[in-house]
Write a structure and sequence with these properties.
Layout: H1 3-26, H2 32-54, H3 61-88, H4 93-100, H5 104-116, H6 118-144, H7 152-156, H8 159-172, H9 181-191, H10 194-207, H11 211-216, H12 218-240, H13 246-256, H14 263-270, H15 275-303
Length: 306
Amino acid sequence: MTLPLTVLKQTLTMALYITMGFVLFKSKKITLAGSKDLATLLLWLVVPAMLINSFCVPYSQEKLREFGVSFLMGLLALLLSMAVAALLFRKDALENLAVAFSNAAFMGIPLVRQSLGEEAVFYLVGFVAALNLFQWCYGLFLLGGPKSKRSWRGVLASPVVLGSLIGFLIFVTGLGNKLPGVVDGALKGVAAVNAPLAMIVLGVYLAQTQLTSLITTPRLYLLSGVRLVLIPLATLGVFTLLPAPNAIRLTLLIAASAPIGSNAAVYAQIYGRDYPYACTAVAQSTALSILTLPLMVTLAQWAWGM
């Protein structure tokens, strides 16, 4: 099976998980409070476990170099995305934030893991950690205003950043492939539920929106177009100019091509912005990404001669 078809298969699988979350919420099998508990479980346990697990590989100078390259390329992709969003949506803080940051942790990681393998997640960890750090700080700047009480201590104590730091320490100390079998098994077991749990939570977000608004709100198509097409194409163009391994470039491109992150809805709720609109933007871009993600992978393979 070719890689674009593999990506399409995985995005369709994720669509089924989203449908499950949608149905469970609509049938009141999952309550709003319960969905928040699932999101907390995902954020504070499952995603950090997956990040740590991705570092459980033998240490080598080559691996360290690859991590450094992927981290720097990830930073470049993030800065490019933020610049495009700020240029096109500077008059609306929520839209700016939503378009700037992809759903790299909840959707990007499981998609990369299932399509490219466990090793590829290693290339994505630095990007995900930086994205969450930037999103937290930029969200504070855009939505929270100068009086927000969020601190750098809170930023550095976020579960994604902590999980990335712990995993990196395990890797550089050479413990990555030497963890006790029970610990290693527990990490892998928890990490394995990331894809279904993350998509079920997204399904709950979708269930809280008016489905007709996904089709009848013209502005949403602009947000999805920039997030799913313009930014990935710009990222692909920049990556084409860089002398980096195709595995790293493709991994980061998939993450940069992911739909609007669910944190856009979370931040809208925290800062009293238009929460239903944010949920609808997340839902529409996630649905459309089923078509755009395989397309971006196909274009990348053609451009990079894969």
